[in-house]
Write a structure and sequence with these properties.
Elements (H helix, E strand, L loop, with lengths): L2 E5 L8 H14 L4 E5 L6 H16 L7 E2 L16 H13 L5 E5 L6 H9 L2 E7 L2 H4 L3 E3 L6 E4 L1 H15 L6 E7 L7 H17 L2 E4 L5 H6 L19 H17 L9
Protein name: ATPase MipZ
Pfam families: MipZ
Length: 269
């Protein structure tokens, strides 16, 4: 069976689609068969990223390893079983289509609570939750007191992940591996950064996730999107002299993939 990786939280602008695309492309470049789904049916940023990539590769007459991205198949109401949810059926059908030809299926979730997102979390073997290094985004995981340290209780998103874990346990599936990724970390050891680190470390033990470093705030990500490129493609398109910022970003991606500890994956880029 394919290993399902879900990239999700319930806030926009945290780098979900950038993380999804770079992870999916990194796995494809390492020789793994990668399927891709975008559950944000309105925006489809991940889907557009892949579309841009395929178009640019064709226009430039180059080969770029890419995930096998598909849209959720349409299902007629008449084809549903009694009591079956339409969105559940569409997601299950998409996974069934991808699974025979995939080692990994990478799923990008919307920045809001939806039925599709809820079901994807329950299907995930690995859950990646990108988080901007800010207490505004920390609120996604837990409610805290004004001191920025004392945790009052889990957030609605954390409760959803807990429910997904319970569903997996009832179905006899392997436990969910949840990784919170700290994006846009400041380069200076500021007081807020330290407080965030302490609060996340405390919460990790309490509600059961691992912490991994993510991506810094880099202009390169916004520049690559229109061509569907990732940090790993720069030399393929003729950029042989990487800037210090680009080299640092590649190292961030390398460290992230390594931290995920995915089955049969050895980091080689």
């Amino acid at each position: 069976m394919a290993h399902i990786i879900v990239v999700g939280n319930e806030k926009g602008g945290s780098g979900k689609s950038t993380t999804t695309m770079h992870l999916a492309t990194a796995l494809a470049r390492m020789g793994h068969r990668v399927g891709g789904l975008d559950l944000d049916l309105r925006q489809k940023t991940f889907g557009q990223y892949v579309t841009n990539r395929i178009r640019y590769a064709a226009q430039s007459d180059i080969t770029l390893q890419s995930p096998n991205y598909i849209d959720l198949p349409e299902i007629a109401e008449a084809d549903l079983n009694p009591g079956e949810n339409l969105m559940d059926r569409r997601l299950s059908a998409a996974v069934e289509l991808l699974e025979p030809e995939s080692d990994f299926i990478v799923i990008d979730c919307p920045g809001s609570h939806t039925r599709l997102s809820q079901m994807a979390h329950a299907m995930a073997n690995t859950l990646i939750t990108p988080l901007n290094d800010s207490f505004v985004d920390f609120d996604l995981l837990a409610k805290i007191e004004s001191d920025g340290i004392t945790v009052k209780g889990p957030s609605v998103y954390s409760e959803m992940v807990w429910s997904a874990r319970q569903l997996r346990a009832k179905a006899g599936l392997a436990p969910l591996d949840w990784i919170v990724v700290r994006n846009r970390l400041g380069t200076q050891n500021m007081i807020n950064k330290q407080k965030m680190g302490d609060a996340i470390a405390l919460l990790a033990k309490r509600i059961g996730f691992r912490v991994a470093p993510g991506f810094g705030e880099r202009v390169i990500f916004r520049e690559l999107f229109p061509r569907g490129l990732t940090l790993l493609d720069l030399k393929d398109v003729g950029i042989n002299q990487l800037s210090i910022s680009n080299i640092a970003a590649r190292q961030e991606l390398r460290e992230l993939v390594k931290a995920l500890n995915l089955p049969n994956v050895s980091v080689a880029f």
